Amino acid sequence: MLIHSRPDEYWANTGGPMSRTRSERISSTLLGLDDGPILCPRTLCLALAFGRKDPVTTVFTLLAQAGFRSPEELRPVFGQGLWPLVCQPNPELQPLDVATAEPREVLRTAFLLGLCTAVRFDPERPVMWTRAGLTRRLELYEMREFYA
Description:
The chain is α+β, with helices and mostly antiparallel strands. It has a domain at 42-141. It contains 4 helices and 8 strands; from the N terminus they run ββββααββαβαβ. The radius of gyration is 19 Å and the shape is elongated.
């Protein structure tokens, strides 16, 4: 039985008496491996910085200025050749500054973030632009070569 006590801590039932328990910190990841028997390479980094501007209002304004009515209309432009990926939040990522970046690149990043949850990128899901989603800083990893 696995018991979740804190976001970064799990306790497992060893099946023995408490006198034979031990604790061990495990810190390892398969994400980002580009060689070896298990491949999970990082393929994308997605992050936007809006400053004091509202993220949703800002991207919808850019969308309208580019001649699109809905985020779904970006799918033919930016959505070709995509496959499901695993996401990992990384607050250390340097975001694209929306105020100074090329509007097309901001829309591309916003489109891709709109296809993400905190842990999964799904090109089949509807594009969802929320404050939480647009302000995530995510690394995306391929899992096509992973099997365990």
